[in-house]
Specification:
- The protein is mainly alpha-helical.
- Among the domains are: about 130 residues, no CATH class; about 110 residues, Rossmann fold, CATH 3.40.50.300; about 100 residues, Helicase, Ruva Protein, domain 3 (Orthogonal Bundle); about 55 residues.
- The protein is built from 31 helices and five strands.
- The chain has a three-stranded parallel beta sheet with strand order 1-2-5, sandwiched between helices.
- β3 and β4 form a beta hairpin.
- The chain is elongated.
- About 5% of the residues have low confidence.
């Protein structure tokens, strides 16, 4: 025994480790009475080895201490448990806390399961407290690393209870507490992935939607470890690819996850991971995307399978008061796109065909019937953009017929007097802007067939700030605030005209024009550039009474700023010459109104649509610049296409005839000379 005592003081790591092993074996193999006299001299050596910097020495010493307690009984170590509990919450170093946690776990293992049931409630309640010092929480969380190793099956009832304090510790401000909690979570997942899945998953699923991003991040990590363990794949592979929907999972792992979790729980887990791909936190997004790529075999097919569960989660998160929950739900595969593009992207993600139809005045119920007929038979999605621009009084009957066939799960049904087949994947979506000119309100019979989805109000000031910075404005922060204030005042104080629009479309036009003006005149003050863009874009559409009000608002927002009008000699002279050539009188108000537009398409604001083509040709002749006329409706677009096709055909025929004539004359000339 004196040799073993001196070995604990040796500098060699291997010697100290062997001394601890010898003590553990001696107390587990010999009689209690023979070793009792040596206990006071052996325990100090084990305590010092328990706090050794080398992890292997601490591990062996902890097991030796547990074997000693198991052999001698608790009565021989009255001061050991208090010393371990004190060291467990020591502020000295994490090494001391780790050794104390490991030693306490082995000692409790030596005392039996009853001691475990007595201590665990106190340990769990203390670890959950938010008012304790970080080093105290760190020590108690360490118990969750070593206790499961000592008590494997007996520790199972406490798994569901310790996940919550572990996740809370993962959101701690101190990094060493977060590292300890992550180790504890990974230890639980590795030990109980097969036997206690149903105890682990509920808490991890709740963690995916926690308000704290660190808890969401750690929940994704632990959930990924669990899925890797179940499916038998390694999560250490690199998943960095250009496409977010690339997958590295296998069919075998796919089946293993369904077998272990069941279809419903697997759908909930994957739906939570998919929403994590759009989280507001970059780390959460990257972690969720990595796990998704590793465990999922085919993204479109998986999305079709989890779609009902995913939409349930989306609706729940959209109704949440937490921004961190609403934001991912609002951008799940619908990021930064128009409503029409959102449906196209969603259909693409699900592996479905989406046909977009731009509705116009020339579209009637017969054309709508043909489109719906094709959609039903091929099982595609149909997205009708600007749906409230057409006469929809008769369409509700057609939609109701399709809806009834889907509800009854019919394979064939009678549609407008013709029996056709129907694919249950068919879907009809409509987009509309109720407040714009030429739009009508949907009748109640049509409203009842669709679920309304309203977009969030955009942050106009942030949009202005970003666009102005991208256009090169150094004072973007101040100018963005002024623009938003001006448009808000215009909405409140100017008259309510049907053609007024102070939304994002006009705002973007102003910002784009401001960028163009700044590039053309880089030495001009930014305030003057923006003021000129606001004036030139908005003034042409105002009625007479609103012009002084608008100029007054600009003057109030930009005081002491002089913005003289710029004359474009070639353009202004061309306008005057065109008006005089057509026999119009040169009225000052008319000239001013035309020159305010400063756009090649100015003739569209002066003359009717039918004469636009003529003045477009004159514009091309004088300035050598093209001016494209937007078709009024779909039929007008077809007519334009026909004219262009005819013009191109005539050009090609003329070229062919010219080449043939040239070739023929060449043959005749050669024949004559020979």
């Amino acid at each position: 025994m004196p040799v073993v005592q001196r070995a604990f003081m040796d500098r060699s790591t291997e010697t100290r480790k062997m001394a601890a092993k010898i003590i553990g074996n001696m107390y587990s193999l010999t009689d209690q009475k023979d070793l009792t006299p040596y206990l006071p001299t052996i325990i100090p050596g084990l305590k010092s080895s328990l706090l050794d910097p080398v992890p292997e020495v601490r591990s062996v010493s902890a097991r030796a201490l547990g074997a000693t307690v198991r052999g001698m009984g608790e009565t021989s170590f009255e001061d050991l448990l208090p010393w371990l509990m004190q060291t467990l919450t020591s502020e000295t170093s994490s090494v001391d806390r780790s050794g104390a946690a490991q030693g306490l776990s082995e000692v409790v293992g030596g005392l039996g399961v009853e001691k475990l049931h007595k201590l665990m409630p106190e340990i769990i309640s203390t670890a959950e407290r938010a008012d304790i010092a970080p080093h105290v929480k760190d020590g108690y969380i360490m118990m969750f690393i070593y206790m499961p190793v000592v008590f494997t099956s007996e520790f199972t009832p406490y798994i569901g209870q310790i996940i919550t304090p572990i996740l809370k510790a993962l959101a701690d401000e101190n990094e060493y507490v977060r590292d300890t909690a992550l180790k504890a979570g990974q230890r639980i997942v590795n030990l109980y992935a097969d036997s206690a899945i149903m105890l682990l998953l509920p808490e991890l699923e709740k963690g995916l939607f926690d308000d704290n991003w660190r808890i969401r991040y750690s929940s994704v990590q632990l959930l990924g470890d669990l899925l890797y363990r179940i499916s038998g794949v390694s999560g250490k592979m690199s998943t960095e690819t250009a496409n977010e929907d690339d997958n590295f999972g296998t069919e075998q792992s796919h089946k293993a996850i369904i077998t272990a979790l069941g279809a419903d729980r697997r759908n909930r887990v994957l739906a939570g991971l998919y929403m994590g791909r759009s989280d507001v936190s970059l780390m959460v997004r990257q972690a969720a995307l990595h796990v998704w790529k590793v465990v999922v075999t085919n993204t479109p097919r998986t999305l079709r399978e989890i779609l009902p569960t995913l939409f349930g989660l989306l609706l729940g998160c959209l109704a949440s008061t937490s921004y961190d929950k609403r934001q991912p739900a609002s951008v799940v595969y619908l990021r930064e796109k128009t409503p029409t593009a959102k449906f196209v992207e969603l259909a693409k993600a699900l592996g479905l065909l989406c046909i977009v139809t731009n509705c116009g005045e020339g579209m009637d119920y017969l054309a709508f019937r043909k489109i719906l007929n094709g959609l039903c038979q091929c099982g595609a999605w149909g997205c009708f953009d600007e749906f409230n621009r057409i006469d929809i009084s008769v369409i509700s009957t057609q939609l109701q017929t399709i809806r009834t066939a889907l509800l009854t799960k019919a394979k064939r049904f009678v549609f407008e007097g013709v029996e056709i087949s129907i694919d249950n994947k068919v879907g009809v979506f409509v987009t509309m802007n109720p407040g714009y000119a030429g739009r009508t309100e949907l009748p109640e019979s049509v409203k009842a067939l669709f679920r309304p989805v309203v977009c969030f109000v955009p942050d106009m000031e942030m949009i202005c700030l970003i666009m102005l910075f991208s256009e090169g404005f150094l004072e973007a922060k101040i100018l963005a605030k002024e623009i938003v204030t001006l448009y808000r005042l215009c909405t409140e104080q100017l008259s309510k005209q049907y053609h007024y629009d102070f939304g994002l479309r006009t705002l973007k036009s102003v910002l784009v024009m401001a960028g163009e003006l700044k590039r053309n005149a880089p030495d001009l003050e930014e305030v003057v550039v923006l003021m000129r863009a606001l004036r030139d874009i908005n003034l042409p559409k105002f009625v007479f009474d609103d012009v002084p009000l608008f100029l007054g608002l600009i003057k109030d927002l930009f005081p002491d700023v002089d913005c003289p009008r710029v004359r474009y000699p070639d353009f202004n002279d061309a306008v005057e010459a065109t008006l005089m050539a057509e026999g119009y009188s040169l009225l000052p108000a008319q000239e001013k109104k035309i020159k305010e537009n400063l756009r090649p398409s100015v003739v569209q604001d002066v003359h009717v649509h039918k004469t636009t083509v003529k003045y477009t040709a004159d514009f091309l002749t004088k300035f050598r610049r093209k001016n494209y006329v937007t078709p009024k409706h779909y039929l007008d677009f077809i007519n334009v296409y026909k004219l262009l096709l005819e013009e191109k055909n005539n050009f090609i025929v003329a070229q062919i005839l010219r080449n043939r004539l040239r070739t023929g004359f060449g043959f005749m000339k050669n024949f004559r000379t020979t």
